[in-house]
Design brief:
Oligomer: single chain
Strand content: 25-35%
CATH class of one domain: Mainly Beta
Largest sheet: 5 strands, mixed
Number of helices: 2
Low-confidence stretches: 135-152
CATH topology of one domain: Immunoglobulin-like
Radius of gyration: 22 Å
Mean pLDDT: 80
CATH architecture of one domain: Sandwich
Distance between the termini: 40 Å
Order of helices and strands: HEEEEEEHEEE
CATH superfamily of one domain: Immunoglobulins
Length: about 150
């Protein structure tokens, strides 16, 4: 085989490999809400089934199309909270007394899809389903990288 043919085969292979790699990430980023529509969220925070007795809950509605401040509410003595945030996917975190009394709670990141109107979002931290509500996860459970929805 001549040197020219070897380069031609290598070039064709490189083009096919590039096309396959490019097609694998063509889904684009996950759909996100860029509106400034606000909605109310209420719920109960518990830790392993027992209502939390204080601390804060924070909803972060920011995404690549919407850069806005997080919204924080106090967790009542009965585990209840109420706040207003923007519609769409919100990352939810916990701090204060609930995190100090329960090792690992400060590291928990939940996700909640806020719809317009009234929303109910109860969280059982460190419970069986804690941390499993990420809207950017694929159906098979593997996370996406975020930018183009590629599997990690």
């Amino acid at each position: 085989m001549s040197m020219h043919r070897a380069f031609a085969h290598a070039r064709r292979f490189a083009v096919w490999a590039w096309c396959l790699c490019a097609m694998a990430g063509c889904d684009g980023p996950p759909a996100v809400d860029s509106s400034l529509t606000e909605a109310t969220v209420t719920g109960i925070i518990s830790v392993k089934g027992v209502p939390a007795t204080g601390g804060t809950i924070t909803f972060n509605p920011s995404n690549h199309l919407r850069q806005v401040p997080s919204r924080t509410a106090e967790i009542g003595k009965d585990g209840s909270y109420k706040l207003t945030t923007y519609t769409g996917a919100n990352q939810v975190s916990f701090d204060g007394e609930v995190a100090r009394q329960n090792m690992g709670v400060g590291l928990v990141k939940e996700f909640f899809e806020v719809k317009s109107g009234e929303n109910q979002a109860d969280f059982d931290l460190l419970g069986e389903n804690s941390g499993k509500k990420n809207p950017y996860s694929l159906k098979d459970g593997r996370k996406t990288s975020g930018r183009r929805g590629r599997k990690l």
